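Hi P.,

Sorry for the delay on this. The queue was packed all week, but I finally got your sequence through. Input first:
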Amino acid sequence: MRRKKLFFLLKNSRTNALELKCLLLVIWINNDLKSQKENEKDAEIRELFEEEIQKTENELAVNTKELFSSLISSEETVDPLQTVIFSIHTVKQEGGLESGITVRQMAEFYEKFFEFYDWQILSYKEVPYASSNTKTQGDPMELVQFCVQGEGALDILAKEKGIHQHKRQSFNTKIGINLKFSVAVHCRPQIMKQRRSKDEIKTDLRFISTRGIRGGNADGGVRIRLNIHDPVYGLHLTYDGVGNKQQNMKEAVDLMTKKIRKLEERDFLNTKAELEGDISQKMIRTYDHTTNKVISSNSTVPLSDFMSDMELLNKIHEEQKEKEDKEIIFDFLSSI
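Then the structure:
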């Protein structure tokens, strides 16, 4: 959702022309330096090019962050209060008992993360691992589920949805020094007990952008694109219409209301079997206990530090946002 939001804020902004020109210039210089480096055979000169490339990339990161900060600050300053069902569970035929132990460990880790953000745990549920016994080490769980409430909780925890793979020695056998145990993380918005009325939904909705293009249809009228977001459930909708803006806004709200009602009417059982049918296969990160490393797509940090210092996970999320911001810039520039 954030990607779409920033893209359309860029597209509709009339006050950031200078910043965009600066970004274009830095991107052009960066690409030119990379091209020269590839064609340069002298190792020392290639090192000099690399230093300059790093400088321009740092400048690009700073300029992008400043531009998006100004865009966002003009729209909103406070993250919405969101209630999330956050689940950690074993993956079918993935590590068995040891995955259950890992579920417990991950649950304890995320409890610290909730505390780091000062989020409130509204409820807690756990399902013990079926085949464990009193001699089992590690207190294995098939499922641990939290109901968490906090500012921006859904937007942040959605980044954790997927497969988390651990590599370590078994706690309960003498074999398998470097075994891999996978667990899945799942999150979704908590459905409100009392449904919002259509007027309440309309009040909650945020119109991210409205854009009109004259002559965009056969009869020469105005084509309107509306982008709206429901911060309560994290839902996003893009609506294309023609003609009267107010009428199109009404129709867009009607469509979003139907989308919200469809989500509310879904029968969520919150069981492991149900969650397994909706597993994201995206690999979030690998926790290598044998080398004391946590490896994600954009960083590697010491495992012992990662599990105790919640600022490290927050930093990984920030780095992901910076990467997304750069992609948004390139997407935007390629569209104009």
